[in-house]
Structure formats: structure tokens, C-alpha cells
Amino acid sequence: MKGKKALAKHYTIRYNINMDPLTNVMTAISHPTRRAIIGQLANGPARFLDVAKPFDTALNAVTKHLKLLERAGLIERRKQGREVFISFRPEPLREVAGWVLEYERFWNKQLDLFEQYFKDKKKKEGEEAMSEPKRNIEVKVERTIPASPGEVFDAWLDPKIPGNPWNMADKLLLNPHVDGFFYWAIKGTPHYGRFTEMERPGRIQHTWMSPNTSGLESMVTVTFKEQVEGTLMTLVHSGLPDTDGGRGHEKGWNYFLDLFPGKFTDASRKEA
Length: 272
Description:
The protein has two domains: 2-89, Orthogonal Bundle (Arc Repressor Mutant, subunit A); 136-271, Alpha-D-Glucose-1,6-Bisphosphate, Chain A, domain 4. It is 48% helix and 27% strand. It has eight helices and ten strands. α1 packs antiparallel against α4.
């Protein structure tokens, strides 16, 4: 313990010895008048009255400033004949510059580490977002239609029937068979896919891609089940991205299925 105390005392004394000249220099340059004197003497030695001339202050105050500068080793007096000239000594300022440089290196290193932390954090968050499985949603819409499953099945694939998506297309390519493709565009938005199941009168299934699915493949399954009052038509759109575009399909399919039964109700009225 004695050895440790002695070592601590040694470093404390050494630290104080090293810091005292530095403290004197920093105290000396802390005042604007003394900094102005240094700037003046940096152009060459000058007599006391020449040093004091630019300052609107008492000669006694200038003398005090010079004493502080002299104690810090920043000036020296040299007698030439009857005149005393005061000269600037830059060496102590180099010590201050060295001390400041050490702290500059320290803070630069700390700021570099700080910046790197946020870069690494952003990179990690990006990697986690990439590796995270994207959440999908499913839309389900049902309507009871006053017609047989076969009639509803055929009408859903007929572009002439209002209420199915093919009827509203501005441009349409439709091949309603297994492995057949479709392409339709409405208001400039393209939709396309491939039929994967075609089982009349019970089931139609096809893929579905558009800008609103983020370009990813989703699946539309339409089933037709006979009931007493007609056919229960169920449309399930699965694999949609959980985005505004993906969620918007619910509104779109409800719009179509609100129109589609009208074909059959109008026909029923005519028959009546």
C-alpha cells in the first residue's frame, strides 16, 4: 500500500509540475489585451511605451499585463544601451498547441466512434428489416347471388358481365384455362396473373400481381356453393402485403361484388 501511495503521489506531483507552466500560459492568453500585446510583439521587439500606446488604459495596467506574460514565459526583456526592448517568445504557445492537439485527437477519435456507432446501428436495422419475414394479409368477401353455381361461375369469367374485374378493364387479355394468363389494365394500372385451378362450377383460382401487391405474387380463390336462396360466392385474396395498396384490395373486391349480383337480380325481375 505504501508503494502505491508513493506512486500516486509521484504522478500527482509530476502532473502539477507539468500543468503549472501550461496554466500560466493559458491564463496569460485568456485576456484580449494580452493577446493583442502578443500580436503586436510578434512583428518584432518594442519598447514599453510603444507597447502601451495602442491601448486606452493606464500604464500601470499595461505593466501588470506584461508581468503575467513574462511569468508565463511569453515575453522577455532585453536591454540595449539605455533602452529596454520587449520581445515575444513563442515556445510556450507550442506547449499549449500540443496540449490542445492531444484533446483534438481524443475528441476526433470519440466522434469517429460515435459516428460509427450510428452507421453500424443503421446497417444492423437494415439487415434485420431485410431478414424479417414480410407480414401478409388476407381479404375475404362473400355475396349470396340468386342464380345457380354454374351461371355465377360463367358470368364471373365473361367480360361482358358488369361487376367482374374483366368487364371494367381498359385493356384486356384473358385466357381462362389452367396455365392460361390474363392481363388487364384499368386507369393505367396493370394487373396480371396465371390461372392455376379451373373447376366448373365450384372453384376458380389464379395468381394476382400489380403495383398494389408491390410486384409480388398473391393468390385469388373464388368458390361457388349452392344454397337454397342461390349461390354463396366467396372470394379470398391471400398473400397480400400489409401495405396501403395491399389493404386497398378489400375495398376493390367489395366494389366488384356489390355490382356483380345486379346482373342476376335484373334478370329475375324481367322473368317476373
